[in-house]
Amino acid sequence: MNGADTLIETLIENDVTACFANPGTSEMQFVSALDRQPAMRPVLCLFEGVATGAADGYGRIAGKPACTLLHLGPGYGNGLANLHNARRAFTPIVNVIGDHATYHRRYDAPLASDIAAIAGANSVWVKSAEGPDQVADLAAEAVGASYGPPGGSASLILPADCAWSPAVLAARPKAIRRGKSHPDGTAVEAVARRMKAAKKPVLVLGQGACGEAALAAAARLATLGVRILTDTFIGRQPRGAGRFLPDRMMYFGEQALEDLAGVDLMALVETDPPAAFFAYPGRPSLLVPEGCETTVLASREQDGAAAISMLAEALGAPASGPVQPLERPAPRPGVLTPSTVGAAVGRHLPEGAIVCDDGVTASQPILNATRSAPPHDWMALTGGAIGLGIPMSIGAAVAAPGRKVISLNGDGAAMYTPQGLWTLAREGLDVTVIIFANRNYRVLNIELGRTGAGNPGPAAAKLLSLDDPRIDWLSLAKGLGVPATRCDDADAFETAFARAMAEPGPRLIEAALP
Amino acid sequence: MNGADTLIETLIENDVTACFANPGTSEMQFVSALDRQPAMRPVLCLFEGVATGAADGYGRIAGKPACTLLHLGPGYGNGLANLHNARRAFTPIVNVIGDHATYHRRYDAPLASDIAAIAGANSVWVKSAEGPDQVADLAAEAVGASYGPPGGSASLILPADCAWSPAVLAARPKAIRRGKSHPDGTAVEAVARRMKAAKKPVLVLGQGACGEAALAAAARLATLGVRILTDTFIGRQPRGAGRFLPDRMMYFGEQALEDLAGVDLMALVETDPPAAFFAYPGRPSLLVPEGCETTVLASREQDGAAAISMLAEALGAPASGPVQPLERPAPRPGVLTPSTVGAAVGRHLPEGAIVCDDGVTASQPILNATRSAPPHDWMALTGGAIGLGIPMSIGAAVAAPGRKVISLNGDGAAMYTPQGLWTLAREGLDVTVIIFANRNYRVLNIELGRTGAGNPGPAAAKLLSLDDPRIDWLSLAKGLGVPATRCDDADAFETAFARAMAEPGPRLIEAALP
Questions:
Q1: What b/e string do you get for A274-303 counting C-beta neighbours within 10 Å, with b at 16 or more?
Q2: Could you tell me if the ipTM is greater than 0.95?
């Protein structure tokens, strides 16, 4: 048994059983050790951003970490953007980052770099093994750290000699999970008193307070006239029929403030006071109306769902609140737009579906049209780094065989990680990838005006357009082994989507927007 | 005039005239300012790794920096791997990294992260503007820093408000370039004395000492029986007919040590004592034979070419040394292998060509077959982070219109940055992309054995194979707007390559290896 064996044994002991891998020479011992431990499922990704995005999708659905296998600093770098997204979703992930042998580091060989510095900004925990006998304990520590609360990616640097040298594994170390702490009853009572006194109170739910229990408890408060909002982008939110549907903090700051006009108390559950996604000249950053007080019902270290329940009890709320009915949208034939795509998705979304949303400007109409669809999970782009839609769907499908996964992607967004299509094909994952092909970074055309930069001239227009050449998604998908269809009108899209929902396996639908 | 305008004006004043961009909201002012300054050429890349690799290729050929335009921490992250390669090539680059407005940072909005920490490991200089009037001076400082010596990427963080706020630009600040220092005559004399006394001396040339002047000077020493070697991977090396061809430090350590057997003096020019690319169990890291002394002829801060000339004078070398004859390889029809591909490349490589090498296990035969081709530049993968071949060719072609660019790519390597094909098509660049399709991470099959990990079992084999599904490069290239050909034998490849050399514009040739 060598260090790599002890690592994999420890990961499995702690229920880490999926590995999204893009290995290089320094990771060969880990790769070889996988042959000796079939309980770990290796999934090859052709680019590290696919591996890390897949680990994010896996963690959000499985509620436990997958591991990634990355090749030194540059490999982590390629995976960094989706680990940024994972940080903002508080997703547990264990990164195994291969490094040069400890004694080789001093020579500053070409692939050497300061891995700890590169990984630090997006990791909740970074440590390097310095000897083979440390590997197992560090692996358990990494798993424990990844759970938080509030959870995130833990980065274990594995020098090659620590992997290949013999190691003793007397007992497989168990990860210590801190767990969320129980809310403080006195604090909850104080929030209850303020809420009673408030004229227009809102409760804002963060990532960790959007599970089924939290939503059910929040629905109870809604019956009392407390408005329930979530942060704009939630890592995983159960939605659809039978679930309570809170409002969503609006994306643009001035719209959010208009929406919140008159609110005099904002109670925060596992989140911070809302801030605009970007700053704009002369517009507010903090989205708390003037005169509105903020108060913390539960921090991210506390059990927000329990706190909401306690608040509901303290306010004498009924035992349950409103939930969405099951209701499919009416057919919307005609011109293909995000709204008509939304109607088709809402009409055919199967129960238990998982929606991976990197749809950028096209997402809102799909959200609207699926409010009363059968129960499903919606996973948003939490960190704003586009290129997560396809990778996240890989991880979700690996975590939940038997559930249909729908991946929504702006065409610009999908071009960051198209390599993920190949992994969908290789693993035969039940994922339908939708590409909203508007041949533009459409959001930037909006943002150009909002930042006061004015209308695009020829140079700027060229930097915002994806036309010339037009990306041929059918050929691109074919090149990577995924069958694909192009739809130019709403009928064709509905037919293609309905068929995709009825048949298993990966496919891509290009929604060719006019 | 706003901060973004002062930035672009200052860059142009300092001869930075190409911008490889993948912008987001926080970069809209920069994008808009490009419309007011046509001297800067913007090139849209659909992924940041393409932008940074292009800037590397541009800098190597132009001998001056391009700028990149990147979107906060995740945007830099996506570009990190190719900036790692650029660091190892000492390529001057100015990264412009957009950030949240200074006053917005405190809210920790979703896209916020510690940009300075992420960028630090691969930058020679990192600073953030804190107000619009600082931008121009910092831009000039960044340009100056990027030149080094030895040169590298300078990262200027540009908060959105520093870009959009009015700024005064009294005089466009000039970058201060330190320049390499002249070698110390006494030190050169000391090396000369040791070289005279040595039985088997070698001179090892690093990145900065492989220009035409350095090679010509080194050839003079070769006439005296001094063996001339370069580091294994050189950022830009003039090769072919009329140039001196030094030997190349071998990749695998034990082969390098065998090759260096008996060497008793190693004089280093702008490089460090050679070390193995990776460590392997029981094999040496440092590639200096036992009993061999090392001495520094010139550091990376010194003018290595001048030092070699001085050494040649001190040793009484003739005024010139051997150069390669012009000699095309014989035709090699039959089975398609890297060697037969090499023969075709050697037979048809035009004068002035630039070869961008990310060919991994296929490169050596191409290097061999082009030793006596017409004069050309060869640009290697200096940092070991595969995925540079296509991006680098973009930058080389932008820097040198009129020169043919050939991009060599392993299929695994090309899958890191296939998005670059789209930019080749959009810009109509004269680049021929060759894909060595062996449907394997072939190098890892070799490395698996060398690291003592043994033969791959089913799990490991699956992680090293790119088959299942087989990547269809013709479809993939078509999807991104680049015409492509697949070749299954050496004749077909030679025909396709000859045609590509005769016609301008981007194209892709899949060398489908058996």
A1: bbbbbbbeeebbebbbeebeeebbbbbebb
A2: yes
